[in-house]
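Write out this protein's structure.
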Amino acid sequence: MNPNASSLHGKCALITGAAHRIGAAIARLLHGEGMDILIHYRSSAAASLALQAELEDQRPGSTSLLQADLLDSTGYRPLIDSALAFRGRLDLLVNNASSFYPTPLESASEAEWNDLIGSNLKAPFFLSQAAAPALREQGGAIINLIDIHAERPLKRYPIYSIAKAGNAMLVKSLARELGPDIRVNGIAPGAILWPEQGLGEALRQEIVERTALKRPGQPEDIARTLLFLLRDAPYITGQIIAVDGGRSLQQ
Protein backbone atom coordinates (compact mmCIF):
# COMPACT_ATOMS: atom_id res chain seq x y z
CA MET A 1 0.00 0.00 0.00
CA ASN A 2 1.13 3.52 -0.72
CA PRO A 3 2.67 5.01 2.45
CA ASN A 4 0.59 8.16 1.88
CA ALA A 5 -2.64 6.20 1.90
CA SER A 6 -3.54 6.86 5.54
CA SER A 7 -5.92 9.70 4.68
CA LEU A 8 -7.97 7.41 2.42
CA HIS A 9 -7.55 4.11 4.25
CA GLY A 10 -10.90 2.66 5.25
CA LYS A 11 -12.91 5.11 3.16
CA CYS A 12 -15.37 3.89 0.54
CA ALA A 13 -15.81 4.91 -3.11
CA LEU A 14 -18.66 4.10 -5.50
CA ILE A 15 -17.50 4.22 -9.13
CA THR A 16 -20.15 3.90 -11.83
CA GLY A 17 -19.11 2.10 -14.98
CA ALA A 18 -16.04 0.78 -13.17
CA ALA A 19 -15.47 -2.42 -15.11
CA HIS A 20 -13.53 -0.99 -18.05
CA ARG A 21 -11.14 1.68 -19.22
CA ILE A 22 -11.05 4.88 -17.16
CA GLY A 23 -13.40 3.52 -14.50
CA ALA A 24 -11.18 0.49 -13.91
CA ALA A 25 -8.06 2.68 -13.74
CA ILE A 26 -9.72 4.84 -11.10
CA ALA A 27 -10.76 1.77 -9.12
CA ARG A 28 -7.22 0.35 -9.16
CA LEU A 29 -5.58 3.60 -8.06
CA LEU A 30 -8.03 4.38 -5.25
CA HIS A 31 -7.87 0.79 -4.05
CA GLY A 32 -4.09 1.03 -3.96
CA GLU A 33 -4.45 4.16 -1.83
CA GLY A 34 -6.41 2.24 0.79
CA MET A 35 -10.04 2.79 -0.23
CA ASP A 36 -12.69 0.11 -0.36
CA ILE A 37 -14.29 0.05 -3.80
CA LEU A 38 -17.89 -0.40 -4.92
CA ILE A 39 -17.68 -1.55 -8.54
CA HIS A 40 -20.86 -0.61 -10.42
CA TYR A 41 -21.66 -2.15 -13.79
CA ARG A 42 -24.67 -2.51 -16.05
CA SER A 43 -23.93 -5.53 -18.25
CA SER A 44 -20.17 -6.10 -17.93
CA ALA A 45 -20.43 -8.84 -15.33
CA ALA A 46 -17.38 -10.80 -16.48
CA ALA A 47 -15.10 -7.75 -16.55
CA SER A 48 -16.40 -6.61 -13.17
CA LEU A 49 -15.76 -10.01 -11.62
CA ALA A 50 -12.24 -10.00 -13.08
CA LEU A 51 -11.52 -6.54 -11.64
CA GLN A 52 -12.93 -7.58 -8.29
CA ALA A 53 -10.76 -10.71 -8.23
CA GLU A 54 -7.69 -8.62 -9.04
CA LEU A 55 -8.37 -6.17 -6.21
CA GLU A 56 -9.44 -8.84 -3.72
CA ASP A 57 -6.18 -10.68 -4.34
CA GLN A 58 -4.40 -7.58 -3.07
CA ARG A 59 -6.73 -6.94 -0.12
CA PRO A 60 -9.48 -9.47 0.67
CA GLY A 61 -12.90 -8.09 1.53
CA SER A 62 -12.18 -4.67 0.05
CA THR A 63 -14.66 -4.61 -2.83
CA SER A 64 -18.30 -5.16 -3.67
CA LEU A 65 -20.10 -5.49 -7.00
CA LEU A 66 -23.25 -3.49 -7.70
CA GLN A 67 -25.31 -4.12 -10.84
CA ALA A 68 -27.77 -1.47 -12.00
CA ASP A 69 -29.12 0.04 -15.19
CA LEU A 70 -28.64 3.77 -14.68
CA LEU A 71 -31.36 4.52 -17.22
CA ASP A 72 -33.89 3.07 -14.76
CA SER A 73 -34.80 5.98 -12.52
CA THR A 74 -36.27 3.68 -9.87
CA GLY A 75 -32.84 2.21 -9.19
CA TYR A 76 -30.88 5.22 -7.93
CA ARG A 77 -31.76 5.07 -4.25
CA PRO A 78 -31.59 1.25 -4.09
CA LEU A 79 -28.08 1.49 -5.60
CA ILE A 80 -26.98 3.90 -2.87
CA ASP A 81 -28.67 1.74 -0.22
CA SER A 82 -26.73 -1.28 -1.51
CA ALA A 83 -23.52 0.75 -1.43
CA LEU A 84 -24.13 1.73 2.20
CA ALA A 85 -24.84 -1.87 3.14
CA PHE A 86 -21.22 -2.72 2.28
CA ARG A 87 -19.41 -0.56 4.83
CA GLY A 88 -22.09 1.67 6.32
CA ARG A 89 -20.47 4.74 4.81
CA LEU A 90 -19.82 6.47 1.49
CA ASP A 91 -16.97 8.93 1.01
CA LEU A 92 -16.81 9.37 -2.76
CA LEU A 93 -19.17 9.08 -5.71
CA VAL A 94 -17.50 8.94 -9.12
CA ASN A 95 -20.02 9.53 -11.91
CA ASN A 96 -18.08 7.82 -14.68
CA ALA A 97 -20.62 5.68 -16.55
CA SER A 98 -21.36 7.10 -19.99
CA SER A 99 -22.82 6.31 -23.39
CA PHE A 100 -20.94 7.65 -26.42
CA TYR A 101 -21.87 7.32 -30.08
CA PRO A 102 -22.65 9.63 -33.02
CA THR A 103 -26.11 11.11 -33.49
CA PRO A 104 -26.07 13.14 -36.72
CA LEU A 105 -28.76 15.79 -36.63
CA GLU A 106 -30.57 14.42 -39.67
CA SER A 107 -31.06 10.97 -38.14
CA ALA A 108 -30.94 11.47 -34.34
CA SER A 109 -33.79 9.75 -32.51
CA GLU A 110 -35.63 10.34 -29.25
CA ALA A 111 -34.37 6.97 -28.00
CA GLU A 112 -30.79 8.12 -28.54
CA TRP A 113 -31.58 11.38 -26.77
CA ASN A 114 -32.98 9.52 -23.77
CA ASP A 115 -30.01 7.16 -23.64
CA LEU A 116 -27.27 9.78 -23.94
CA ILE A 117 -28.92 12.37 -21.69
CA GLY A 118 -29.89 9.62 -19.27
CA SER A 119 -26.43 8.15 -18.80
CA ASN A 120 -24.40 11.36 -19.02
CA LEU A 121 -26.65 13.82 -17.16
CA LYS A 122 -29.80 12.43 -15.58
CA ALA A 123 -28.11 9.54 -13.75
CA PRO A 124 -25.28 11.67 -12.30
CA PHE A 125 -27.84 14.20 -11.02
CA PHE A 126 -30.14 11.71 -9.29
CA LEU A 127 -27.33 9.49 -8.01
CA SER A 128 -25.77 12.57 -6.45
CA GLN A 129 -29.12 13.46 -4.92
CA ALA A 130 -29.48 9.96 -3.47
CA ALA A 131 -25.89 9.85 -2.20
CA ALA A 132 -25.81 13.33 -0.69
CA PRO A 133 -26.98 12.44 2.85
CA ALA A 134 -24.35 9.70 3.22
CA LEU A 135 -21.62 11.82 1.67
CA ARG A 136 -22.51 14.74 3.94
CA GLU A 137 -22.00 12.56 7.01
CA GLN A 138 -18.41 11.87 5.95
CA GLY A 139 -17.54 15.27 4.47
CA GLY A 140 -17.26 13.41 1.18
CA ALA A 141 -16.90 14.30 -2.48
CA ILE A 142 -18.46 13.84 -5.90
CA ILE A 143 -16.31 13.77 -9.02
CA ASN A 144 -17.87 13.66 -12.49
CA LEU A 145 -16.19 12.55 -15.70
CA ILE A 146 -17.08 15.13 -18.31
CA ASP A 147 -15.39 15.73 -21.67
CA ILE A 148 -13.57 18.56 -23.42
CA HIS A 149 -16.48 18.47 -25.89
CA ALA A 150 -18.72 19.95 -23.22
CA GLU A 151 -17.22 23.26 -24.39
CA ARG A 152 -16.15 22.38 -27.92
CA PRO A 153 -18.94 20.34 -29.55
CA LEU A 154 -17.87 17.24 -31.44
CA LYS A 155 -19.25 17.17 -34.97
CA ARG A 156 -21.86 14.43 -35.51
CA TYR A 157 -22.18 13.98 -31.73
CA PRO A 158 -24.60 16.82 -30.83
CA ILE A 159 -26.63 14.94 -28.19
CA TYR A 160 -23.51 13.64 -26.44
CA SER A 161 -21.97 17.12 -26.47
CA ILE A 162 -25.16 18.63 -25.06
CA ALA A 163 -25.29 16.01 -22.31
CA LYS A 164 -21.70 16.64 -21.27
CA ALA A 165 -22.27 20.40 -21.29
CA GLY A 166 -25.14 19.79 -18.89
CA ASN A 167 -22.88 17.62 -16.79
CA ALA A 168 -20.36 20.46 -16.57
CA MET A 169 -23.04 22.78 -15.22
CA LEU A 170 -24.15 19.99 -12.90
CA VAL A 171 -20.70 20.07 -11.27
CA LYS A 172 -20.98 23.78 -10.61
CA SER A 173 -24.59 23.64 -9.47
CA LEU A 174 -24.01 20.75 -7.10
CA ALA A 175 -20.95 22.47 -5.65
CA ARG A 176 -23.24 25.39 -4.72
CA GLU A 177 -26.05 23.17 -3.49
CA LEU A 178 -23.94 20.74 -1.43
CA GLY A 179 -21.28 23.01 0.02
CA PRO A 180 -19.80 23.33 2.53
CA ASP A 181 -20.14 19.66 3.44
CA ILE A 182 -19.54 18.00 0.07
CA ARG A 183 -17.02 19.05 -2.55
CA VAL A 184 -18.00 18.53 -6.20
CA ASN A 185 -15.54 18.65 -9.10
CA GLY A 186 -15.12 17.34 -12.61
CA ILE A 187 -12.47 16.02 -14.96
CA ALA A 188 -12.66 16.58 -18.71
CA PRO A 189 -10.55 14.04 -20.61
CA GLY A 190 -9.21 14.71 -24.07
CA ALA A 191 -7.48 12.09 -26.24
CA ILE A 192 -7.22 9.46 -23.52
CA LEU A 193 -8.86 6.41 -25.03
CA TRP A 194 -10.20 5.93 -28.52
CA PRO A 195 -13.89 5.06 -28.88
CA GLU A 196 -14.48 1.33 -28.67
CA GLN A 197 -16.05 1.38 -32.11
CA GLY A 198 -12.68 2.50 -33.44
CA LEU A 199 -11.23 5.41 -35.38
CA GLY A 200 -9.06 5.33 -38.47
CA GLU A 201 -5.35 5.78 -37.91
CA ALA A 202 -5.30 9.03 -39.89
CA LEU A 203 -8.02 10.56 -37.69
CA ARG A 204 -6.27 9.39 -34.54
CA GLN A 205 -3.05 11.06 -35.64
CA GLU A 206 -4.94 14.25 -36.52
CA ILE A 207 -6.42 14.37 -33.01
CA VAL A 208 -3.02 13.80 -31.40
CA GLU A 209 -1.47 16.53 -33.52
CA ARG A 210 -4.01 18.99 -32.13
CA THR A 211 -2.63 18.51 -28.62
CA ALA A 212 0.22 20.63 -27.31
CA LEU A 213 1.99 17.51 -26.04
CA LYS A 214 1.64 15.62 -29.37
CA ARG A 215 0.72 12.34 -27.72
CA PRO A 216 -2.38 10.65 -26.33
CA GLY A 217 -2.96 10.36 -22.63
CA GLN A 218 -3.66 7.24 -20.59
CA PRO A 219 -6.48 6.28 -18.22
CA GLU A 220 -4.01 6.59 -15.37
CA ASP A 221 -3.70 10.33 -16.13
CA ILE A 222 -7.39 10.69 -15.29
CA ALA A 223 -7.10 8.51 -12.20
CA ARG A 224 -4.18 10.53 -10.82
CA THR A 225 -6.07 13.78 -11.38
CA LEU A 226 -9.04 12.36 -9.53
CA LEU A 227 -6.79 11.33 -6.65
CA PHE A 228 -5.45 14.87 -6.47
CA LEU A 229 -8.96 16.33 -6.31
CA LEU A 230 -10.03 13.84 -3.67
CA ARG A 231 -7.01 13.75 -1.37
CA ASP A 232 -4.88 16.83 -1.97
CA ALA A 233 -7.30 19.63 -2.87
CA PRO A 234 -9.58 20.32 0.11
CA TYR A 235 -10.17 23.93 -0.99
CA ILE A 236 -11.20 23.11 -4.57
CA THR A 237 -14.86 22.71 -5.45
CA GLY A 238 -17.01 23.49 -8.49
CA GLN A 239 -14.03 23.17 -10.84
CA ILE A 240 -13.43 21.13 -13.99
CA ILE A 241 -9.88 20.12 -14.85
CA ALA A 242 -9.13 19.41 -18.51
CA VAL A 243 -6.71 16.48 -18.87
CA ASP A 244 -6.23 16.77 -22.59
CA GLY A 245 -2.55 17.31 -23.35
CA GLY A 246 -3.33 20.90 -24.29
CA ARG A 247 -5.99 20.02 -26.87
CA SER A 248 -8.30 22.77 -25.57
CA LEU A 249 -5.64 25.38 -26.41
CA GLN A 250 -6.46 24.98 -30.11
CA GLN A 251 -8.68 27.61 -31.67
